[in-house]
Amino acid sequence: METVRAVIADDERLMREQLRARLAEVWPELEVVAEAKNGREAVEAVATHRPDLAFLDIRMPGMTGVEAAREIGDACHVVFITAYSEYAVEAFEQGAVDYVLKPADSERLALTVARLKKRLDSKPADLGALLEKLAARLDLPAGSSATVAQKGPYLQWIQASMGQQIRMIPVSEVLFFTSDEKYTRVQTETYEALIRKPIKELVDQLDPEQFWQIHRATIVNIKAIAGVTRDLRGRQLVQLKSYPQKLEVSRNFTHLFKQM
Questions:
Q1: How many angstroms separate the CA atoms of 142 and 76, rounded?
Q2: CATH number, residue 202
Q3: Which end of the chain is more exposed for a tag (fewer CB within 10 A), N or C?
């Protein structure tokens, strides 16, 4: 069969590698001619390699996937990579463009490939209206390809060590992060893992509407909080809904719970 050429753009290296591997399984004829870490690199890769397809992560630093798609225009077919399934289904199922949910699943990817093969002989669709709608729904810059200040992009996945394995942990599943001098512990309902990223760096990469720093060494997922109590020394302690450990709130962060 005729070789189809593609560019993959995602700011997470592990995600690029996983998508490349999954694509090789379900579409052996596809040749990934370049990878990019952000939207600007993706635009340059498309201009250089002139691929048939561009797989673009929606949220990337600097130029987003939506902005990159706007610049790429009809140079190739676009497939968005997203962790936001609810938006993807609504925005993309109209058939103008397809999407891949993170992390890439072989079965779902096979459906995407089947759709793409049918589209390759046709001209890439005009995505202008869809891109504006998508930008508005995901609070991304719209209207211009210039780099614009925006919320995020916040971390969606944590790459963490578990024994001899590397695991991709959805940030939404994390109950809390707590750090010592060398490592930060990532705690979910069912397991814990370790990363080398310090709390002071991690807090700037997490959505502040979902994660609060409550101590110089602790960040908690506010959706996991059951309540706050005081111990005999007057310290505030966060109780979690589905985990027995209580987390101390330092004096600098007690204002977060002043209504409790």
A1: 20
A2: 2.40.50.1020
A3: N
Per-residue pLDDT at 105: 76
Classified as helix, coil or strand, 157 is strand
The answer to whether residues 161 and 225 belong to one domain is yes
pLDDT band at 90 (very low <50, low <70, confident <90, very high): low
Q: For residue 72, give its domain range.
A: 4-137
Judging by DSSP bridges, how do beta strands 30-36 and 4-9 pair with one another?
parallel
The full DSSP string for 165-185 is EEEEEEGGG--EEEE-SS-EE
Residue 149 lies in a domain: no
Q: What angle do CA 236, 237, 242 make, to 5 degrees?
A: 155
Planar angle of CA 213, 217, 220, nearest 5 degrees? 40
- What ranges make up the beta strands (E) of 16-106? 30-36, 53-57, 77-82, 98-101
Picking from 168, 187, 162, the residue whose alpha carbon sits closest to that of residue 177 is 187
Q: How many CA atoms lie within 13 A of 12 on its CB side?
A: 22
* pLDDT over 90, % of the chain: 38
The yes-or-no verdict on residue 178 having pLDDT over 90 is yes
Tokens at residue 147, please?
Answer: 């780099």
